[in-house]
Specification:
This protein has 7 helices and 9 strands; from the N terminus they run H-H-H-E-E-H-E-H-E-H-E-E-H-E-E-E. It is an alpha/beta fold and 224 residues long. The protein has a single domain, classed as 3-Layer(aba) Sandwich (Rossmann fold). The strands form 2 sheets. Strands 5-4-3-6-7-8-9 form a 7-stranded mixed β-sheet. Strands 1-2 form a two-stranded antiparallel sheet. A hairpin with a 4-residue loop joins strand 7 and strand 8. Helix 2 packs antiparallel against helix 3. It is globular and about 45 Å long. It binds S-adenosyl-L-homocysteine. S-adenosyl-L-homocysteine binds next to strand 2, helix 5 and strand 4.
Length: 224
């Protein structure tokens, strides 16, 4: 939640990145159409450079996706902001992210939502993310090593599910684990993907297409 930012003084001025660089990122997000102030303030305060390798940290506030190892990428700030904005429209208390990666998206969610779960299939990435989330004292985030194609049955239902890797088709378990009135935000498709929103209303999934996007694929199985 937002108060967490205030409770954690280490969020402010952390590392060498100047506040100006971060402010510039926020100005760009506003130009790109992001309007939710809570999202903008969270992205301004959260040290994005701590979620990439040191050699890349000088590029962390650029409007670009960045490699995080093992062929995976941290999405550009605009996509993180857009997906988070779509999620907050439903005022969720409990959310699930599929594809923890660097941990940045789930840290953003941890600043804005009461209870955050995130699953990742690649254990080395998960362990790095775990350390980052711990260092930032985001105690409301729980990370699990699992195949997100099956959601996270033990913690379901969720008010919102946000998927940061693209399946060809939406896995059924994600629909099933969504609470009534909940929202699933997911990129769908093979090469040309569509960022899609599914709202669960009276047991039915109502789909809205948002915009074309490019994500790494949602793979099968949980590997070491
Ligand atoms: N949200 C991440 C972006 C990660 S990229 C961040 O903020 O950094 C997508 C991630 O999804 C990768 O780390 C990849 O390993 C993971 N992934 C792909 N298929 C998966 C699956 N079936 N279950 C869980 N994670 C998966």
């Amino acid at each position: 939640m937002v108060e967490l930012l205030q409770l954690n003084p280490q969020f402010r001025g952390i590392g060498f990145t100047s506040q100006r660089t971060r402010n510039r990122m926020i100005e760009r997000l506003v130009e790109q159409g992001i309007t939710n102030n809570k999202v903008l303030e969270t992205l301004r305060n959260l040290p994005r450079h701590l979620f990439v390798d040191e050699a890349l940290s000088h590029r962390a506030y650029e409007d670009t996706a960045l490699p995080i190892g093992l062929g995976q990428t941290l999405s550009q700030p605009y996509i993180v902001a857009r997906m988070t904005e779509l999620l907050l429209e439903k005022n969720p208390n409990k959310v699930l992210e599929i594809g923890t990666g660097s941990g940045y998206q789930c840290a953003v969610l941890g600043c804005l939502v009461q209870e955050v779960w995130s699953v990742e299939r690649l254990e080395p990435l998960l362990e790095k993310a775990r350390q980052r989330v711990k260092d930032l004292k985001l105690n409301n985030i729980k990370l699990r090593h699992a195949d997100g194609n099956f959601g996270l049955a033990t913690a379901a239902p969720f008010d919102a599910i946000l998927v940061t890797a693209a399946p060809n088709e939406v896995p059924n378990s994600l629909f099933e684990q969504l609470a009534e009135g909940g929202r699933l935000i997911i990129p769908v498709g093979k090469e040309q993907q569509m960022l899609s929103v599914f709202d669960k209303e009276e047991g039915q999934m109502i789909q809205t297409n948002i915009e074309p996007v490019r994500f790494v694929p949602l793979l099968s199985g949980a590997n070491k």
